[in-house]
């Protein structure tokens, strides 16, 4: 066998090992759509708060607060639903299992930081510290991406690092938390999802 044959065999073995230990059917397009949902939700929330909270973005009153929370939940729900649908479609296209040990590890490592962060954000909101929530959401979501990247496409950790950085900046400057949230969950998802789509989905 030639050196090229050996290299080809090694490459195939490496690919098989990656497929057995990592869930690699995540869809870049789902990231783009999640970013669009986030920007639409942010625009609606901004309009509500600016028109019904004395023109101050960090003040929430009654129904405005709960409507904003509902919008946030809808963004999360639509993003998760879109991600599941497109990921299942991609997995079937690639003839890969949707639910196995690698996808379970991915989900567990993603959900632990995310659920803990969600509960902590609820505590912060209950205490009336609204300016901190945008930064905390970015930080815990970023940690969830970094944690899950060990069992999926490794590149998603870079989006995690970006969101963690934006979250830390938001905690330093709470008045800009909303805009940094829109940047991290909206714009960066679109940019990163587009890059992932052309790098992995179009092969």
What features would you highlight for this structure?
about 200 residues; mainly alpha; 7 helices; about 80% helix
Percent in helix: over 70%
Average pLDDT metric: 81
Structural category: mainly alpha
* Low-pLDDT windows of residues: 13-21
Total number of distinct structural domains: 1
**CA-to-CA gap between the ends?**
29 Å
Largest sheet, strands/sense/barrel: none
Number of strands: 0
State Rg: 19 Å
Q: Please give the count of helices.
A: 7
Estimate the strand proportion.
under 5%
Describe the protein.
This protein is mainly alpha-helical and 203 residues long. It has one domain. 79% of the residues lie in helices and 0% in strands. The protein contains seven helices and no strands. It is globular.
Quick structural gist:
By secondary structure, this protein is an all-alpha fold. Helices cover 79% and strands 0% of the residues. It has one domain (29-86, 100-201).
